[in-house]
Design a protein that fits this description.
elongated; Cytochrome Bc1 Complex, Chain D, domain 2; 10 helices; binds heme C; 2 domains; mainly alpha; about 65% helix
Length: about 190
């Protein structure tokens, strides 16, 4: 009986040593690059920090779809990511750097959907749509709501990082300001 207890104690002590030796370097790595430890972190460390630090990543808040697009964008820009790594990578990124919950103003937004939605859309437009070209390309267009949705989807395929949650307010804004011109009277 005594022997068994002694053996158990020894094994327990060994276990502790192993655990502490495993966790020590991990804690240091997190402090250095700001990426929380959890499943997928090694893939991100291995493939996403070759061209820039982790700060560009931890500043973002994207849905999983948004992160998947961001990964595709980085691949277009030269990152080498295996197809089988994309899913766990997007899971990891969305888990730790997912979208922030919408502000408490949602009740108000429901009362006047278009106005406040279009207002949010203005900020999205300025942040996401003026990276590659000036406002003139957009201002020349007059599109229906569906037309603007298609245009936004097209820009996303071309590299705009608009998240799913941003699409509606953005399209509201575009439609409100660049909707079809009213037909001229007496045609
Ligand atoms: C081949 C080089 C390269 C690799 C590898 C790379 N990136 Fe980037 N990334 C860039 C460049 C260039 C920028 C733009 C930097 C700037 O604006 O200063 C950028 C910017 C970003 C941004 C800021 C938002 C944006 O789109 O501009 C995020 C987020 C990001 N990268 C995430 C990632 C993730 C996640 C990975 C791993 C899949 C990754 N990057 C791998 C080159 C790379
Ligand atoms: C990654 C770069 C990039 C981003 C971000 C971007 N665009 Fe574009 N956009 C382009 C390019 C390239 C063209 C073609 C320019 C040309 O024909 O000279 C274009 C053209 C356009 C046009 C002209 C019609 C057409 O389809 O050619 C409109 C309208 C437009 N963009 C709207 C937007 C809106 C709205 C957003 C925000 C969701 C956006 N763009 C974000 C790259 C971008």
């Amino acid at each position: 009986m005594r022997r068994i207890i002694k053996l158990t104690v020894t094994l327990f002590a060994c276990g502790l040593t192993i655990i502490s030796s495993l966790s020590a370097p991990r804690a240091t790595a997190q402090q250095q690059d700001g990426l929380p430890e959890s499943a997928g972190v090694e893939i991100v460390r291995g493939q996403c920090l070759n061209c820039h630090e982790a700060d560009l990543i931890v500043q973002q808040r994207l849905s999983k779809t948004g992160w998947t697009r961001e990964i595709e964008k980085m691949v277009r820009w030269g990152a080498t990511v295996k197809d089988s790594d994309k899913e766990p990578m997007a899971d990891y990124l969305a888990r730790h750097f997912g979208q922030r919950p919408l502000k408490a103003a949602t009740g108000q937004a429901a009362a006047t959907p278009d106005a406040s939605s279009a207002e949010r859309g203005k900020a999205i437009f300025e942040n996401k749509c003026l990276l590659c070209h000036e406002v003139d390309l957009t201002g020349q267009q007059r599109l229906s709501r569906i037309g603007w949705m298609r245009e936004v989807e097209k820009m996303i395929r071309w590299g705009a990082t608009v998240t799913d949650a941003e699409k509606d307010p953005l399209v509201d804004y575009l439609f409100k300001n660049y909707g079809p011109r009213p037909r001229t009277a007496g045609k």
